[in-house]
Structure formats: structure tokens, C-alpha cells
Design a protein that fits this description.
Structural class: mainly alpha
Largest sheet: none
Number of helices: 8
Shape: elongated
Keywords: Membrane, Signal, Transmembrane, Transmembrane helix
Number of domains: 2
Order of helices and strands: HHHHHHHH
Radius of gyration: 26 Å
Length: 235
């Protein structure tokens, strides 16, 4: 399983970068949207039903009439799409596709595997209560606090880096850079968390008390990060 972790992470990073670049493609298409350039099936088929051979009404004429009735004119509708709709759509795709709840759901299989490993160790150690509390705190700390926050930071970095180059080699390096950054943040957090647990265990005789510090602090950091981190910039 560990051998597959790095390739899967690199692939996931590449997919996220591709998603960020596709937002720009979509944004450019919507920016230059016009009804005249839009395609309709009826016009492409010559207004003939291919199954029956009978003529069909033109959808474009009907839609243009409806748009003119609803928005005053086709120009007003096009301006609305090119401006307000484009801004809202890009904002949603850039900032809300990977929400907190979706990230937690996506990571749940991995967390279940970790939970299974930890509980196996807990059973082997004779059902120690302190270890059970550490397991519960670890699931909350990493599964609900740190890892979603780590993903949020990496998502913002991926969106910032989407314009660097479209070359495959550069995209591969960017994917590796994102994975390395995430691994570095994870390693530093684990070191800090373990150091705190060691210090608390040395002072109070039981490292489980460290959770009383790490959980509230990391919970607050997570809330502030998801609430206050600036949204991806929309040009």
C-alpha cells in the first residue's frame, strides 16, 4: 500500500492542476460567449427529424424570443453571461469544488485503514484506555483538522501555479512539488505534535494530556483557515 502512495499522490496532484487549467479554458469560453456562435442541434440537422424525416421547429428562434422577453435583448443576456455569470461560475469552480466536507469524505477510506491499524495495536496492547483516547484524538486531529487544512493550502498553491507552463515535463515537476510541499507540512506537523506529546508525557507522566492542547488549537486553526483564507483570485 505504501508503494502506491507516491504514484497516487502524484496523479492526484496532476488531476488537480488539470482542473485548475480547465477553469481558465471555461472562463475564456464564457468571456466570449455569444448567441450567434452558440450551436443548436436543430440547425445542425437542417431542421429535419432524423428518425421520422419530418421538419422540426427551430430551437434557436424560440430561445432568442424567450431571452429577449426575459432579459430585454440578446445583448443584455450576453453581457450578463460574460460578466456576472462568468465571475460566479469561476469563483465556484476555483473555491468550492473541493469543500471541507468533500475532502473529509475523500480521505475517509485512508482514515479507516489507519484506524484499523491503530485499533489492532490497541488490542495487542491489552485494551489500554489511554491508548484508545490517543487513537480517538489522532483520528480527529489528522482526519478532521490537519489533513483538510493541508489540502486547502495545496489547492491554493495549485491554482496559483496553473499558469506556469503547459508542458508535460513542467506539469510533472509541479505535481511533484505539490506532493513534496504537502509531505513537508505533514512531517513538520507530526514532529511538532510528537514533541508536544513527549514534553507533556515527561511532565505529567502521560502523553494523552497533549490532546487537550493540540485538539483545541488545531481546531481553531482549521476553522480560521477555512473561514479566513483568501479565495482564489478571479481575473
Amino acid at each position: 500500500m505504501c508503494a502506491l502512495a507516491l504514484p497516487c499522490q502524484l496523479l492526484l496532484a496532476a488531476v488537480v492542476l488539470a482542473h485548475c487549467r480547465s477553469i481558465d479554458v471555461m472562463e475564456e469560453q464564457v468571456r466570449h460567449f455569444t448567441i450567434e456562435q452558440s450551436k443548436s442541434f436543430c440547425c445542425r440537422s437542417g431542421h429535419i427529424d432524423r428518425r421520422t424525416g419530418r421538419p422540426v421547429p427551430c430551437d434557436r428562434i424560440i430561445m432568442v424570443r424567450c431571452i429577449s422577453e426575459w432579459f430585454g435583448s440578446t445583448e443584455s443576456f450576453e453581457s450578463l453571461v460574460q460578466d456576472k455569470l462568468r465571475t460566479v461560475l469561476v469563483h465556484q469552480l476555483a473555491n468550492h469544488v473541493f469543500s471541507y466536507s468533500r475532502i473529509v469524505q475523500a480521505m475517509s477510506p485512508t482514515m479507516w485503514v489507519v484506524f484499523d491499524m491503530w485499533t489492532g495495536q490497541w488490542i495487542a496492547d491489552g485494551y489500554d484506555l489511554a491508548m484508545l483516547l490517543e487513537i480517538a484524538a489522532g483520528i480527529i486531529l489528522y482526519g478532521l483538522f490537519f489533513l483538510p487544512s493541508n489540502c486547502l493550502v495545496l489547492l491554493r498553491l495549485a491554482y496559483k501555479a496553473r499558469h506556469l507552463s503547459s508542458r508535460t515535463s513542467v506539469q510533472a515537476l509541479l505535481s511533484a512539488g505539490l506532493v513534496a510541499t504537502g509531505a513537508l507540512m505533514f512531517g513538520l506537523f507530526v514532529m511538532a505534535e510528537r514533541s508536544l506529546a513527549y514534553f507533556v508525557g515527561h511532565v505529567f507522566g502521560n502523553s494523552v494530556y497533549a490532546s487537550a492542547v493540540t485538539l483545541p488549537v488545531m481546531g481553531l486553526v482549521t476553522v480560521l483557515l477555512w473561514r479566513c483564507m483568501p479565495s482564489a483570485e478571479i481575473v
